[in-house]
# Entry
Amino acid sequence: MTPEPVLFITLDSCRFDTFASAHTPNLKAVAPLHKAQSPSCFTYGSHSAMFVGFTPGIPGAAEPLLDPKFGKLFKLTGPAFPGKGTEGYALQGANIVEGFARLGYRTVGAAAMGWFDPETATGRHLSAPFDRFAFPGPYNLREQLAFVEAEHAAAAREGVPTFTFLNIGETHVPYWFEGAPWDQNDNPCIPFQSVDRSAECRTRQRACLEYVDRMLAGLLHRHLGGTILVCGDHGDCWGEDGIWEHGVMHEMTTTVPLVMRDKGRAIGRAQRPASVVPFGARLSSLRREVAALF
Ligand SMILES: [Zn+2]
# Structure
């Protein structure tokens, strides 16, 4: 039997609040939305970490897959670091792409941002592991999806399962998509700018994500019986603490949306048993009891 397909999508620079407020029925059909922490504040750092299994998670959630410390969706295992048994996939190799290839998957990648450009040394690092890879550049989601569709059709004819990675650039500054009713050259989020254009950043990134959602409908639908990970690789600052864009460590650049599906199962937070009281609440209760003694 052919293993289930795996789909890994990074919405470049997509903020959590953008995802939460956008009309994205196809993305939201994947699984409940989680507020997660990304492993870095810029594209190369984040993808380098994610490609060895350190995908965004919820610190302290203590639940497999949502808290990668507790159990990673994509876990690289080896003699020095065996899995815990809580992983989605136990993989072997230099990175998760190679890991899926070793499991017999056809690995297909299509990326938007310059860090993935195979003409550069950093781009080769991120793109070389894939069996098939396309780099059409940013704001070309249509072309990325056409490439993926053709690869999937070929793999289906051969009966080969697919691991597919998409790095989507429409949500990256200047926040633009094919047919957007604003000038592609007008970037409302320039580092060190002194003018407050946060409202345009918010409106435009949300519109970009809604376009992405419409474009992804078919691809997501075909993977609902398989595994899907969709997340931001980092966020952007829109003037918080005087900071614009990303590439600096800040709560807004490291807080990202996360939706996840493991072999057909939507991953939501477990219901806490009534007897389990969060540590903070226990501490408050203890403080009250101690105060009552004096
Ligand atoms: Zn990025």
The chain has one domain: 6-292.
